[in-house]
């Protein structure tokens, strides 16, 4: 393509909220035959809400949430925001404050840890509990399976190394997710979902959006490894994601697309930024690139 054609395409993209960082990004996009999608915040709306809480110990709900919110208030993760929002609602006063959290640690793709008052608090997925040396009771595992089959993410809460509760969070798929995926199929582009979330929820969401190839419980490095593996098999791979946890994969991909109001880290790592949270823009970006580069051949 001529520099002028690239400039025109870049301009057309920008006018639709698709920011293409240079000619190379635009050129690579026309060869893409495989797209790896993150789940949370990419295929789903990314504004999860707490829909259920199951306490395994005799605790006052409000107190339970004070501890959890104190820990999660330090995290940028959409799940953390949902939990903090929910905790706020349990208090009638406007400016309720949680206890101070100390020694806060956030482990991307796993969860958070902090000291709150006298307790050590761990909030996150099953593997985070296991790697933290916490035994998961049968009852908790049963609740987990139950919630995951409903496409909800079940988050475990441990206090002083004991699972005390499970928070279920629901994050619906984006309204146009299905259409975008089936449109890509018609363009001979294969879609794959890679998520840090658990298998149960991932499969349930995959069914809703029409993606059959799914990789769940993937750590951020594993998302990148999957991208590289697909590249080795001869594919030109795009990665679409929104979070810090997606950055390694965004960098590894032939084309990294950061979606919506993603984190700064993701936006920086990406080649193309989709300003609106719209999945149709993935289609538009590839289409724009194909129109620019196939024409001249
Ligand atoms: P995704 O790939 O779907 O965007 P992440 O990789 O960000 O998901 O997270 C994977 C899983 O790790 C989440 O589903 C959740 O169980 C757990 N997790 C991550 N961050 C947090 C957090 N701040 N609080 C609780 N759980 C978390
Ligand atoms: Mg995400």
From TrEMBL:
Name used for this protein in its record = P-type Cu(+) transporter
**Which residues, by range, are in coiled-coil regions?**
none
Q: Which domain of life is it from?
A: Eukaryota
Membrane-crossing residue ranges in chain numbering: 1-20
Q: What phylogenetic lineage does the species belong to?
A: Eukaryota, Viridiplantae, Streptophyta, Embryophyta, Tracheophyta
Where, per UniProt, does this protein localize?
A: Membrane
Q: Which family does it belong to?
A: Belongs to the cation transport ATPase (P-type) (TC 3.A.3) family. Type IB subfamily.
């Amino acid at each position: 393509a001529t520099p002028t054609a690239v400039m025109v395409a870049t301009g057309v993209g920008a006018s639709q909220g698709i920011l293409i960082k240079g000619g190379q990004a635009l050129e690579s996009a026309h060869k893409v035959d495989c797209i790896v999608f993150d789940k949370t915040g990419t295929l789903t709306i990314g504004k999860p809400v707490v829909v259920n809480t199951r306490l395994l110990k005799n605790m006052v709900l409000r107190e339970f949430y004070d501890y959890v919110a104190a820990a999660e208030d330090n995290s940028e993760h959409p799940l953390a925001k949902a939990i903090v929002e929910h905790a706020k609602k349990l208090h009638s006063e406007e400016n309720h404050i949680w206890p101070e959290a100390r020694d806060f640690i956030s482990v991307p793709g796993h969860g958070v840890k902090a000291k709150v008052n006298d307790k050590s608090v761990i909030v996150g997925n099953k593997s985070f509990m296991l790697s933290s040396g916490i035994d998961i009771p049968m009852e908790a595992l049963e609740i987990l399976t139950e919630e995951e089959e409903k496409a909800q993410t079940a988050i475990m809460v441990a206090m002083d190394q004991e699972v005390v509760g499970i928070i279920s969070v629901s994050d619906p798929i984006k309204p146009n997710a299905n259409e975008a995926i089936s449109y890509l199929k018609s363009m001979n582009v294969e879609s794959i979902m890679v998520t840090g979330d658990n298998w149960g929820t991932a499969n349930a969401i995959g069914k809703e959006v029409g993606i059959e190839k799914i990789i769940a419980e993937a750590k951020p490095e594993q998302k990148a490894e999957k991208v590289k593996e697909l590249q080795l098999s001869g594919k030109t791979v795009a990665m679409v994601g929104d979070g810090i946890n997606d950055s390694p994969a965004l960098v590894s991909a032939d084309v990294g697309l950061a979606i919506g109001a993603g984190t700064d880290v993701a936006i920086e790592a990406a080649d193309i930024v989709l300003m609106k949270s719209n999945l149709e823009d993935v289609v538009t970006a590839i289409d724009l690139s194909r129109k620019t580069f196939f024409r001249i051949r």
